[in-house]
Amino acid sequence: MISLVHRHVLKEILLATGMAMALFVFVLLIGNALRDIVQLLAAGKLSLAVCCKLLLLLIPYVTAYALPLGMLAGTLIAVGRLAADQEMTAMKSAGLSLYHIAAPVFLIALLAMVFGVLVNLHYGPQSRLTYKQLLASAISENPLGFIEAKRFIHEFPGYVIYMGAREGHQMRDFWIWELDEHKRVKLFLRAAEGSLKLDSAENQLILTLKNGTAEKRNDQSPEDFASNPVRSLYFGELPIALALDKILGSSLQRRVRLKEMTFAQLMQQRQLALENTAGRDPRKNDRLMALQVHLQKNFAMAFSVFSLAVFGIPLAIHVGRKETYANLGLALAIAMVYYFMMIMASWVERAPQWRPDWLVWVPNFLFQAVGFALLRRSNKR
What we know:
single chain, about 375 residues, alpha+beta, five-stranded antiparallel sheet, 12 helices, 5 strands, elongated
């Protein structure tokens, strides 16, 4: 049976971790939404229903990052409050060891670690792929929304487009710059009005400019106006084809990225990479090494839930703060150190002799070693 002490600590850690998790999921969700969704919703490219569905699909993806943060913050808040209120001292005075008191924290951390493996290697990649496909599909269903008034549009490769006003289907005051491979203007178009039509068969927008002028520049030196004067001509109507597949991609032809593969798919890709190695040093196979690093990184990220909890217990006792904001700030600082170490390991991903697939585990081993050393020290006090 669970003792009264364990029930008390378990209640504290569950409540604190749950609240911290919810906070970090919300913050990460808003951050991703502001980057990908809100602007499209405001521009009328996404409906509210699709926006809500996209936000729900983002939850498993951001949970992979929120879980270690939530566990660390929850540990600091719960154990910090117990230490600040002298409850930890009272329990140790009753003959209980620190390991016995912290057993519920270890249990929650282990369960969260297993949950993290499921999220990182199945639900997260699956939801990310569905999110990308739904986002591309939703935008492609309203391609006319790409041309917005009073905004420089860079989405179409080779063009910069600006439209001054839009009244219903009437579009006025077009400025269009056609660029070469060096991003230099080779053709400038100015039109009083224009219209858009979707060519579904060719998956492109047909922008028809009316009553405008075109300025053609020299192909070799378009910015040399002294020796190559600009040639201007008037046009009554000029159609421009803007390919949509270059900005949306094709759902069928789009290559699934490693971050969007489940564990089963990653293992299939790994087997194919091993077969292609054919007697060569596996470390010299870039595809195989990328797969190895990605797999190990996902497992290491899930394992970080336990590592950060172990590190957080003695730190919370030593700091002894029960203010939530202070513990959240401390959790963020520690997490930033951990993630920076993970990023450092990824820097040598293209140097297989350094075994980056093993280096991603260094932050976990380091935090656990320091955490258990501090736990042992705190237990003796």
